[in-house]
Amino acid sequence: MRIESAELKFTVLIEKNENEGYTVTVPSLPGCVTQGDTWDETISNAKEAIAGHIEALKTLGKQIPIEIPVEVPVEVGATS
Question: For residue 7, what pLDDT is reported?
Fold first, then answer.
């Protein structure tokens, strides 16, 4: 899934937690992690986490990574 922040787009990895809720990581923003109890809350929290992470990078004078999406089809053979 991709989430936009201003004009930037970031791929997020959303994993269902064992008990309940979801955990989100943003591969191109190391350390940017959040969670939520519901899908909607998780997406909202991810947007807030990305925005906060970008603001922190700006404050520290660090470069904001620009993600270039690449789609690669993967074939998986079915086994019986």
Answer: 77
